[in-house]
Every structure is written in structure tokens, then in C-alpha cells.
Fold:
Amino acid sequence: MVDEPRRPSLASPATRRLASEVWQLAWPAITHMLLITTVFFTGRVLVGQHSSTGLASLHISGTLTWTLYSLFTAFSAGTLAVVARSIGAGDRAAAARATRGALVFAFASGFVVAAIFLVANGAFLKLLFPRAEADVLRDAGAYLHIVLPLFPLAFVEATAAAALQGSGDTRTPLYVAGLGSVANLALSAALIFGKLGLPEMGVRGAAVGTAATMAIEGVVLTYALLSKRSPLPLREVGWTEALPAFRRVLKVSLPALGEKAVYHGSYVAFVAIIGLLGAAAMAANQGLISIEAVSFLSADGLGVAAGAIVAQKLGKKRLEDASQTGWLAAGLATAMLTTFGIVFAIVPRALASVFTEDPAIVDLGARTLLVAAAAQPFMAFATVLGMALRGAGDTRTVLAVMMVCSFAVRLLATWVLAITLGYGLVGVWIGSGLDWVCRAALLGWIWRRGKWRFVAA
Structure:
């Protein structure tokens, strides 16, 4: 029989030390995620100020870009789990071998994905969004044609950041993300509106800013891993050693890929439902996603720290510390996102108006943001425990939870509320909130049972 892990007592000195360890690793990861949000947020604010059509087009191109990138992060989650478990066991060479193999796989995968979607671009968009206006589809296609060729470096960036975070270095990805954010802001602002003698490119300018960020971050993080100051001895590992070691990463990553595929398959369907509601709903939804990304990626940063520390503690056979890490990180994230939710509820119109001056879109966004506010604590709790389970190598369980909640709950509830009952975008976000409630309940129960502590990674 598996002993259930105890919840941490905040009065315990050991628990306070563990909380400090979580926070020391978490704050750079949270800041890193917030800088990534800045890239996402900046592009949408600037495009929204330039054109409502451009903002609506990002509902399509931004969603597909994020979906493809996020699908690949299943492999970066596997990289983090294997690297952190190896570091915890004191085997940096094994961590380096897995990382080198993962980097090769990342670059090759990015090339293949980019090639497929560049060829299928126009026909695929028309098939997925049959009711979208021609100018919206045109802008979406133009954005993708600029961003997709840089996917190999985007995938390398995700892998390199995960390897560094798994080794305990969350600061280097933070500094590199800061550099990328500055480049994105400068290029996007100049090219969207045609400043400094540059051409006015609208949504294409935002695409150039995003593509430049992918290139900068991918190259710099790879250099950091291969440098003499790297926390992992990649320079001492040969290619023949690296590829077999990558099998461990694949073992953890494949169920995570299934989880991502389930989630994003349902999410693309979710987005397609929003597409049925018209351009105003699409534009409002882009603004709402950008606002919520600030809170979601804060939880994601705590999840990165939780996954890395859980894996390291398991590598050291310190099972109780691993259990308490998950509870502590989930509690911190819940408190943080509850605060965000309160802000959403207090000033919804002010937040929605950042993206557009169109009163109809602002009104719709403000009403929907109240629903998003209520979902924040559940999203925080589920996000962190899901990433903690991935760090432990228990990606199969997270896949099962995703299948139940994303398909059985989110899609069904969204269709009934948004289309059948006619609640529109508000109904869409209620469906999303119910998904997070489902995940929080199931993942909390799974973490409490503790069987994940004995999964091999």
C-alpha cells in the first residue's frame, strides 16, 4: 500500500527551508514567463491599436503558433524531468547527454513542422475558420509565413531553457528572455506603425518582432549551454552518446505529447467555436487571452520550479520533500492568481480597453473578464500540480486528466453554453473555467495519493 504524502506544516523549519528553495528557483522562472508574456502582450496591444482586423487575425495565427510551440514543449518537459532527476542523482554527464540529444531533436522537429504548415497554410486556415473574413485570413497567413521559418530556433529555445531550469539555473533563461523582449518591443513598435523610416507593416511587423525574438533566444541559450560556464558538461559529450540518452527523454515526453495533443486539439476546436461568434468575439478573446497570460504564466513559472525540485528530490530519494514541494508551490500559485483575479474583477473595462477603443469589444471583454477572474485559483492549482507530476515523470496520469477535462468538460460545456444557450463569448469562458475546476480536483486527489513518487524517469 502507498503511504499518502503529508501536507506541509508551515510552522516547521524544514518546510520553511523548502519554501525558500522553491521560491529561489521560482522567481526567476516566473519573471522569465512574464517576459515571454510581454512579447505576447506587446504584439497584441500594438496590433490592436493599429487595426481591429489585425487583432482578429491573431486569434487565428497566434493560436496556431502557440499551439504548435506548446505541443513541442512536451519534449522540453521530458528534458527538464530527465535533467533534474539526473542532477538529483549526482550524474551531470547523463543530464548533458540527454540535453544534447534533445537539442538535435528540437531543431529537426522545428524544421519539419515549419515546412508542413508553410505548405498547408492558406487551405488549412480556410478549412479551420470557414466564416472568417477574407482580410482576417489574409493577415493570419502573412503572420504565419514570417514566424514559421524560425520554429527550429523556437523549439531549440524551449529545450535549452528546460535543460538549464532542470539543472537549477533559472536565471539564464530569464536574462535571455529579457533580451528577446527588448528586441521584440523595439522591432514591433517600429514596424507595425512604420516608425524610424521603416515601412508600416501592421500585423506583419508584429510577426517580424516575434520571429526575431525566437532567433535571438534560441541562439543565445544554445551558446550558454555549450559554453565553458554551462552547468551541464555538453562540450564533453559526443553525438554518439547523446542520441541513445535521448531515449529517456522520449519515454517521459511521449505521454506528455499525447497530453498536449489532447489539450490543443480541444483548444483548436474551442477557438473554432469562438470563430463562429464573429470578428468582435475573436478580437475580444485575443485581448482576454493576453490579459490572462500574465497570471497563467506566473503559475507556469512556479510550476517550472516545482517540476525541477520534485525531480531533484526524487533523484535524491527524498520522497516527502518532493510531496511537500508540490503542495507549497500550488499554494503559492493559488494565492498569487487569486490576487490577479481580484484585479480582473475590480477593473475589467480598464483592462479590456488596453487593446481596442471599440466600445462593443470593450464591453464584451469586460463582461467575460469577470468569468476569468473566478477561474484563477483553480487554474493556478491545476497548472502547478500538473507540472510537478511531469517533473516526477508521471506524464501518463496528466494525459488521462487532460482527456477527461478538456474533451468531456470543456468542449461540451462550451458548445452548450456558447452556441446552444446563446451566451456567446461569456459561455466560452465559463466552459474554460469548468475545465480548470475539473483539473484542479483530479490533480489534487492524484497528488495526495502519492503513487507518482514511484514512477521511473
Remarks:
- The chain is about 85% helix and 0% strand.
